[in-house]
Amino acid sequence: MFHMPGRSHSGPLPPLSEAEAEIQLRLEGHVRALAGQIGERNLGRAGSLDAAARYLDGILRGLGFAVEAQEFEVEGTKVANLESALGGGALHDQIVLAGAHYDSVVDCPGANDNGSGAAAVLELARLLAPERLARTLRFALFVNEEPPYYLGDAMGSRRYARRCRARGERIVAMLCLETIGYYTDAPRSQAYPAPLGVVYPSTGNFIGFVGNVASRALVRRCIGSFRRSTAFPSEGLAAPDWIAGVGWSDHSSFWEQGYPAVMVTDTALFRYPPYHTSEDKPEKIRYDHMARVVAGLARVLVDLAETPDLAFRS
Fold first, then answer.
1. Other beta carbons within 10 Å of 151
2. What is the bridge-based pairing of β-strands 77-86 and 135-142?
């Protein structure tokens, strides 16, 4: 449940590399476009939700990807999940998926929740576009994660994961990027649901890898890969999904369909004071730290796509 391979980085962070500095600028541009220029994104602001989908679609097409829209109607309004992929080689029938929701809760611009995750998906697509890997890499952006659609039939990732299972798709690993942009070295800045506070650090400066018990092998694989390649604090947890927060995002839709999935998160409301408020604005994000995380996640995805003996449930 708690023991993870490798060791979390401690001490000062190294300077950003030139590549990481570019990632930082691009991430900030995406978050400011989604949460600043477009703003609140939900069916109460259907025009903004559609504008966000057009923005994401345009970025992916500009990177050379084909984009498939999974459209469906909710309360008389058409909404869409978006999908792009890098075809694999010898193991092309196996899929490694990175996904995030792009909507925001009502009365919230959604910079961290979840402009940060959507921006990360775009940047991962850019970073990995030149690669030709053994497994297929897929990038997905989901609509309607936030209430009142969360865990309902109109939740975008639920529609998407059900379609994947109906098609017989072999998703061997799903990474859900959920609220990944806020980090602080302030003492006692990190909270947890009981009983996790006795095990994990009280400073909110790390990225978390969270899964249910069935996905524990994937959690361990992801955090082990991240720690080997990336000098940034990290913590991992594989726990029953009845513990508060463990299943609180789109990864739970994939668990329902029997796919292994992990949430990558800054822990959201357990750390981030503006969570689900009008103050969740682009200036609250630590883009330098987020850039390190995204660079590390790109390496994790390559590891997942290339390792011959990857054997998680699918």
1. 14
2. antiparallel
Greatest Cα pair distance, the chain, in angstroms, is 53
95 bridge partner residues: 136, 171
Quickly count helices (H) and strands (E) in the chain. Answer: 7, 8
Structure tokens at 144: 């309607």
Non-local CB neighbours of 148 within 8 Å, separated by 6+ positions:
none
Q: What is the pLDDT of residues 171-225, one digit of tens each?
A: 999 999 999 999 999 999 999 998 898 889 999 999 999 999 999 999 999 999 9
**To which residue do tokens 């690669």 refer?**
131
**Residue ranges covered by each domain of the chain:** 18-306
Fold adopted by 18-306: Aminopeptidase (3.40.630)
Query: Two tokens at 275?
Result: 């969570």
Q: pLDDT per residue over 28-71, tens digit each?
A: 999 999 999 999 999 999 999 999 999 999 999 999 999 999 99
Neighbouring CB atoms inside 10 A of 258's CB total: 12
Sign of CA dihedral 160, 166, 169, 171: positive
DSSP 157-172: HHHHHHHHHHTT-EEE
